[in-house]
Write a structure and sequence with these properties.
Number of helices: 4
Number of domains: 1
Oligomer: single chain
Structural class: mainly alpha
Shape: elongated
Largest sheet: none
Helix content: over 70%
Number of strands: 0
Order of helices and strands: HHHH
């Protein structure tokens, strides 16, 4: 087997690995990423093993970020649909301190 064959096999393996990461749920990708970080922090791996872990970690982090972005877009779409159908924006009852403004109004009225 030539060096070029090894390179192509490694590239194909990385693509397959990245495709597999794309199928993971957020929770699974996050948990695996945490485990990889712990493994890297413990050390004791060869350089090649460390690089492979790092590459897998990058793919897992990308997956987590993509899923969080997707969730954020979905929430924004729900708010936009709600505003379009009811004319209401986001629920602004909560003040900046997280307390319900209506409760504050009620207590100061009494």
């Amino acid at each position: 087997m030539s060096d070029s064959d090894d390179g192509r096999s490694a590239d194909a393996g990385q693509e397959t690995d990245r495709e597999a990461v794309e199928l993971l749920s957020y929770e699974h990708a996050r948990d695996e990423l945490v485990a990889l970080v712990q493994r890297l922090e413990r050390g004791g791996m060869t350089l090649e093993e460390s690089i492979a872990c790092w590459e897998r970690g990058e793919a897992l982090a990308d997956r987590c970020e993509a899923l969080l972005d997707q969730a954020q877009r979905r929430i924004a779409e729900v708010h936009a649909r709600r505003a379009a159908t009811t004319g209401a924006g986001p629920d602004l009852r909560d003040g900046p301190d997280g307390r319900d403004r209506l409760d504050d109004d009620m207590s100061s009225a009494g």
